Amino acid sequence: MPYETYFNMLLNIGLLVLIAALLTNLEFVRDLFLEEQGSLFSKTALAVIFGVISIVSTYTGTRTDGAIINTRVIGVLAAGLLGGPYVGMLAALIAGLHRYLFDIGGFTAVSCAVSTLFEGILGSVFSARFKSGKMKQIGIFALTAVAEVAQMVIILLISRPFVDAVHLVQRIAVPMILMNSCGMLIFLKAFDMIFIREEGQFAEKMRLCIGIVEQSLPHLRKGLQSREDMEAAAQIIYHSISCSAVMITDMEQVLAVETEKYKKELADPAFLVPVLESVMDLKPTYFHQSDFPKKLGKALKDQIIVTAPLLENEHSVGGMTIMIKKRRHAVRVDLEFVEELARLFSTQLELSNLEYQKKLRRQAELKALQSQVNPHFLYNALNTISYICRENAERARELLLTLASYYRQTLENEQYMLNLHTELYHVNTYLELEKARFEEKLQVDMEIEEDLDCMVPSFILQPLVENAVRYGADEAGIRTVLIRAFYMPDGKQDGQRQVCIQVQDHGKGFSQEVLEQFYHGDNWNRVGLKNVHERLKSVYGNDHGLRIENTGRGACVSFLIPENGPS
């Protein structure tokens, strides 16, 4: 008899696992489990399913001594663990009521009905712990064992005569505790397949999304302003997934459409108006046949349309609409895919907007520097030229042309980065005018390493040179300026050779107070140097600002930049 009991319970467990496996392959059941905020309908449906599973366990149980050796605890306890308190209690009520009605007046009818309700309570209490992953297999085994021990205790407390109750518990306790505890582990594993499959589909969906976005990156850098790029992005999406149409819009109009069959339907105002209106929402909108006029709905009867918003700073700037053919299997994954893809596109659009804003900021910085061209320099240059006019008209004419060229270079230059040699040419133009003013009292030397070639921010050197000319006079009034550019001998940083650019003079140097103000950012009155310092840090990083030091023969202002530009 004991061996027969174990064998029958093993068959019952196998039947439950088979039922669980079949249920996990039903789209309807998977949707019930995966619904994030379970509705009353989904919870009730799950309770009914587990209640029926428990009823099947009662029918397939083995009768012995006025009782039924069964696996009912598996369905009731699993209902509470997987579905939560509402599902667990309702399933227990269904199974317990059936157990009582199944054998009214029976020896264990009341005690088994009560124990079934207790098992539902037990599963509900531990539901949160189970769903959070804190309950391991040993915990599930122990919980089921406790539930079965409680059933034995309830039988002893309620069933009469007491002697028969003791005899029954002696016969069924060990097989029911042991087999149901093991069966519970196997049963829950079957339902785990729902979540494992969902995770696999999600991973595949994200891989596909990322692949599409990677291909679309070159076309997203200009934002929604470029129709040509949006058309290219729509083509990439259309050829990457199984869909009937792809449409990208801004808030008012269609930017790109890719479809072979539905161009007429997508251009219909009856289709466009609700789609464009839905873009205002911050969540996806699903359209079905019934959402459109009869004629249009008939043409789209085999399709499901989902529109997901394209967002920038949590505001809708457009929409992505994808039309998917209805299939026998779930379209939920396809719909979530559209939402995820739109979210990734939104992120890239925000980044492109940030890059555009960064470009505008750089241009504003350049304009600010250009607007700070020293008016005293202009006054001094014109004054110098006026004196030269009396002595050497041809030289004065050359200087006027040089002055015109200088201001054209500085005020009309729109480029943010220039080749170092172009920047040095602009500096030389400035120095030509200063040499005319100071004559032999201004000496300029340049030491540029042979074959050195790199890009520098426009207008980055002149403020340094201008500072050296202005403050670099020695005791004899001679202004000596040395401009050096060379590769650092220390090797590479971040895979690039570093270029050092220095501007040195033979003046009095910087006072210690001025140096402390510069490095601490307090009350620094050298606007030109401060702007250069901030621009360098903005372009290359905080460790690439100006370095200012006194050499004993004057001051040296220098900075390091990577050979191939900012990384």
TrEMBL record:
InterPro entries: Bact_2-comp_sensor_kinase (IPR050640), GAF-like_dom_sf (IPR029016), HATPase_C_sf (IPR036890), HATPase_dom (IPR003594), Sig_transdc_His_kin_internal (IPR010559), Sig_transdc_His_kinase_LytS_TM (IPR011620). It is a multi-pass membrane protein. It catalyses: ATP + protein L-histidine = ADP + protein N-phospho-L-histidine. Residues 29-189 form the Signal transduction histidine kinase 5TM receptor LytS transmembrane region domain. The chain crosses the membrane at residues 7-28, 40-61, 73-98, 104-126, 138-162, 168-188. It is found in: Cell membrane. This is histidine kinase. It comes from Ventrimonas faecis.
